[in-house]
Amino acid sequence: MVILLAVLVLGGVVWLVRSRDVPGRRAHADTAWAPTRPFEGRTITGAEIAGGKIVVSGLTKHYQNVKAVDDLSFAVEPGRVTGFMGPNGAGKTTTLRMLLGLVTPTAGTATIGGIRYADLDQPARRVGGVLEASAAHKGRTARDHLRIICRATGVPLARADEVLEMVGLAAAGNRKFGGYSLGMRQRLGIAAALIGDPQVLILDEPTNGLDPQGIRWMRDLLKALAAGGRTVLVSSHLLSEMELLADDLIIVAAGRLAAQGSVASVAGSISRGSRTLVRTPDVAKLTAALDSEAVVTPAGTGEVYITGADAAAIGDAALRAGVAIHQLVTQGPDLEDAFLELTRGKAAIR
Amino acid sequence: MTLLGSPALGQAPRTGAGLARQAGAEVMKIRTTSTWWLFLAGVVVSTALALWTNGVSQHYVLYPPLSTMGAADRAQAIAQAAQARTPAGVAAIASSMMTSGQFFGVLFAMLIGVLAVTNEFAHQTATATFLACPRRTTVIAAKLAAAVLFGALFWLVSTAIGAVVTPLYLHAQQVSISLTSWIVIRSVLLNLLAFVIWAIFGLGLGTLITSQIVAVITGLASYFAGYAAVEIIFHLIYHVYRHAWILGAPVIAPAVATRVMITPGRAFPHAPPQWAGLAVMAGYALVFGAIGIAVTQRRDVT
Question: Do B4 and A166 touch (CB under 8 A)?
Fold first, then answer.
């Protein structure tokens, strides 16, 4: 009897010590922490860098007669904004949904910090997902929508008001979702994703329906989150937006990987290097004055693209020939051209 | 690891069983739209109407209008009234009054179950739900708990109205029985079971048919049409095969099974005993619950 009691007490003490040890262990010195960053005058504290890497490996999803995603592999690093791009129907949304455990892959794996989403302990505290703009009951207030997610995630309900304020919806929190504009719905989706203060954010077309202010706001927020050490994976088909927002790009077409790397390396990966746009009243005379390696292609009335000669060589040649130059612009590799070349022939409706 | 210095997240994280947490979230989902109290209002109104019609018809059994009847009818009515005044007869009247709200009440319980699932698809909230809790069996179990809770709430309100009206009615009719007698209590408890099972039935229906409108119509049809259609079909079969048990077989329809389950004695001529109704309803709840979990496990949320 006494022995039994002693064992029980000892077990209780061990359990207490272990359960107290858990938060301590998380903040241990072997985990790296990113620096804090400012956002709208406030501070975003750094996230734990370890465990935020997304790895997609051989991911495949077959629907009845379509290979929506076909043996797709890529990795997404923490501390950077990664743009996930592709033509409509390239399999972007399906990939993100498999990553979040909503769609079961036909083959392959998608892990976050080496663990499948469904196997994560407290997944919503590690990963935030924004998948549909209109994803709340129309008869429910935005605050109640968020409080339900708080309850299901296991964080205090007061967190709902914090995230509402963070996305600028504090004044509209008690309004029903049915009356929300598309831009407000996007902000609410972001708020829901931020409830668990996740280390990884996965967003599907978050800028759809946002006004210019909203797009700027979203860009600043995502950049600040990434700079704070978080992993940010954001799908879009808006090239101009991705050029401003993303550090890295993953381009998919017809369910397969078309390119992966930094924005500059993806844009530079196409055959064409830099070119020079020249506006001159006498194209023929200028062409005659250039080296034989230079290639001149018409670009409009009085405008030509010249490759094979840089701006200095073109300017010198013009001076020698006595040709007036009205404009001389060097253009680097273009993301739009790269995107169109990488996805050529794979953008058809499947 | 807090974003923008969150005081809320700074508090100790809530832990505890996942199911309790999800069930809490599911109850919040039902509570935060207007549906549930509209249904509750429906339960109150339909219970009041049912008590009124039930009370009137019972009154004419106890006090048949003999002066308007022919001799043969009169003898039968007197016999019926005498039967109704026996302790068993009064117990049956009391049970019937106490469970008056059942006919429409279980419908509302079923609809709460249907909507608990189909709302998630109609409003695309399934994504948020499964992101917060990827363990789908836990989500379904939590929905089950919430639907059962609201089914029980509807029963409670319906029974409370019955418990106020029934003693006054019995007193006015000058018959008496203790409402705490086992026959009455048993009917009331079986009635609770009916509300709960119909809520589960609705939930299973919702997981099978995720289109809200189709699921609701199917649910209503299986209740109302099932009632009449099954009895007609089995009567036709009986005319061919002439086995008495065929007349009791309509119990396989959920609506008939519910009536058999809560009616002391025989719900209709050749009706199977009460436990058969209970077994049929429990079977539906089990099968639908299991199918609901299996289907939800496999479904891609797109």
Answer: yes
Tens of pLDDT, residue by residue over A223-256, are 999 998 999 999 988 888 898 999 999 999 989 9
Which is more confident, B144 or A268? B144
**Residues A268, A269, A271: CA angle, nearest 5 degrees:** 95
Mutation to test the B interface, candidates A100, A137, A231, most B Cβ within 10 Å: A137
ipTM over 0.90: no
DSSP 3-state of A113: coil
pLDDT digits (tens, 9 = 90+) for A330-340: 877 778 878 88
Chain A partners within 8 Å of B128 (Cβ): 135-136, 149, 192
The CATH architecture one would assign to domain A54-267 is 3-Layer(aba) Sandwich (3.40)
How many inter-chain contacts (A to B, CB under 8 Å) are there?
129
Task: Give B185's Cβ-side CA count (13 Å radius).
Answer: 4
Other Cβ atoms closer than 10 A to A6: 10
Interface probe with A: pick from B4, B15, B296, most Cβ of A within 10 Å: B4
A275-279/A54-62 β-pairing: unpaired
Residues of B in contact with A44 (CB under 8 A): 3-4
Note the pLDDT tens digit of each residue in A244-297.
999 999 999 989 999 899 988 888 776 566 788 899 888 888 888 888 888 888
